[in-house]
């Protein structure tokens, strides 16, 4: 039986690994991207099982908050950088900075709420991908592929943090891909980003806040 990482696509083959996947410890992680064991699915199950949207796309539209707009513009800036469009990237960075500056503090911010929100985002990607595929929009579909993988990784890391606490970040580094936003926990950045395949020098190390 083969099991596939929902985030980077790494395949664990029981025949080659000589250990049944179910016998691997719960602390086992993807050797490529560091995702949790729970982020693997049997090969017969597609990573993005699409649920048919029961309502028209327009009924799913929602007003975005300033914080969401800041994140959106930041992502668009990175996309423009990837397409060698520096002027457009600069404009989106300005918009991102503006919306970040007017974003109010979140009083109910907690790791538990973040975990719930990330899981909701993962589930929502199915409907967005279905709409992109139905419209034949290859660009949007590609965004969904990267976005879903990055979001799944974030969800996995937050779930792990809720179990391990600050010990999870002791004596290790936190690296973020500047192209797709993939987050990696380890002493060094991965040689290639598991999501967008850029080299290690495209990763930035995130330093902890001073105590």
Parts with pLDDT < 50 across at least 5 consecutive residues = 47-57
* Lateral arrangement of strands in the main beta sheet: 2-1-3
Radius of gyration: 18 Å
Helix proportion of residues, in percent? 40-55%
Structural class: mainly alpha
Overall geometry: globular
Distance between the termini: 47 Å
Number of E-type strands: 6
What would you note in describing this structure?
It is a single chain. This protein is mainly alpha-helical. Helices cover 42% and strands 10% of the residues. The protein has helices spanning 14-17, 66-82, 86-101, 111-135, 138-164; strands at residues 2-5, 11-13, 40-42, 173-177, 183-186, 203-205. The strands form two sheets. Strands 2-1-3 form a three-stranded antiparallel sheet. Strands 5-4-6 form a three-stranded antiparallel sheet. Helix 4 packs antiparallel against helix 5 (138-164). The longest helix has 27 residues, at 138-164. The N and C termini lie far apart (47 Å). The model is unreliable at 47-57 (pLDDT under 50).
